[in-house]
């Protein structure tokens, strides 16, 4: 069984909108994939001695990189909830454990202290201490260096992702990303800085992003999800277009994985291709998400029509 003791970290966060002081609903954040596992935050209510609001972390394995038996030892922490109860910072999770972890309990009487304009922010830092049974994609060799003397010579800004520096040209980045266009050409104070930190951006994914917009690499099944995440984060039509073309024509990912990505990143042509590729009712069931609110009513209508066509 594959075992990896190299420490890995990621941050997961979500802003829950219009949070009432009392609500029995379970509300989910966006699902994210990190290190072979899908994760999402959720907010729920529990009533014991008093009403309490819980932040919880829900997880499920990804088909691509996880063996039938897998496990992780993780630590979860946050600096947003000093006066609330951190349920447990250390957790052991696996394919047979409970799929929901209690993270923070916020007492009903303290909830107002954490809300801002009725919204409730959640942010947790996850450290993976050990993992088994999870086959991560191999780190590809760099096709282009963005921190060597040549990159520095022709750059006018340094972008920091994690601990890595990337020397790039502002105008070229702006031409491929609405985010960077606004950052460099707008009235932001960062536009004058020579070094800018990109928070919550994985350096490996950013390396792939830069290589792609510079024509140095092609999308593959190991890089496409990270590229789509950054295409969405940086609002890059170029990267979206390249990723969608790959998913439609060359990807060997399962139909379910393709459909999930199409829904998450609003890739309508890929979404329609996936639905047209459903061959029977079992195929339709296989692509249905655990959280029905991930799919908008129009897509639900298409899926129902497809299912009825097999009667």
Automatic annotation (TrEMBL):
- Which InterPro entries does this one have? BTB-MATH_domain_protein (IPR052664), BTB/POZ_dom (IPR000210), SKP1/BTB/POZ_sf (IPR011333)
Which PROSITE patterns does this entry report, sorted A to Z? BTB
The residue stretches assigned to a coiled coil in this entry are none
Where are its TM segments located? none
- In what residue span(s) does the BTB domain sit? 155-213
The record ties this protein, via PANTHER family, to:
BTB AND MATH DOMAIN CONTAINING-RELATED, MEPRIN/TRAF-LIKE MATH FAMILY-C.ELEGANS
Q: What is this protein called?
A: BTB domain-containing protein
Species this protein is from: Caenorhabditis briggsae
